[in-house]
């Protein structure tokens, strides 16, 4: 199981996947917003989204769990 974590602090602007979705390496799975900039969260390996741990509007710190892949 792969865990996708936030690489910076910010607000979760958009969650682009849901549980059960098939994702590929290089795909954006969420967009974080910080200082009025939108920064995509891109995954490095593919799989199936097992669980999304955040909702749009949540604040996350660097290292917080965003989602899990199988």
From TrEMBL:
<dbReference type="Pfam" id="PF00364">
    <property type="entry name" value="Biotin_lipoyl"/>
</dbReference>
<protein>
    <submittedName>
        <fullName>Acetyl-CoA carboxylase biotin carboxyl carrier protein subunit</fullName>
    </submittedName>
</protein>
<keyword id="KW-0092">Biotin</keyword>
<dbReference type="InterPro" id="IPR000089">
    <property type="entry name" value="Biotin_lipoyl"/>
</dbReference>
<dbReference type="InterPro" id="IPR050709">
    <property type="entry name" value="Biotin_Carboxyl_Carrier/Decarb"/>
</dbReference>
<dbReference type="InterPro" id="IPR011053">
    <property type="entry name" value="Single_hybrid_motif"/>
</dbReference>
<feature type="domain" description="Lipoyl-binding">
    <location>
        <begin position="1"/>
        <end position="70"/>
    </location>
</feature>
């Amino acid at each position: 199981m792969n865990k996708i974590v936030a690489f910076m602090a910010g607000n979760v602007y958009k969650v682009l996947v849901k549980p059960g979705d098939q994702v590929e390496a290089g795909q954006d799975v969420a967009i974080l917003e910080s200082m009025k900039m939108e920064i995509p969260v891109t995954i490095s390996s593919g799989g199936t989204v097992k669980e999304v741990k955040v909702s749009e509007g949540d604040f996350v710190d660097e290292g917080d769990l965003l989602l899990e892949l199988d």
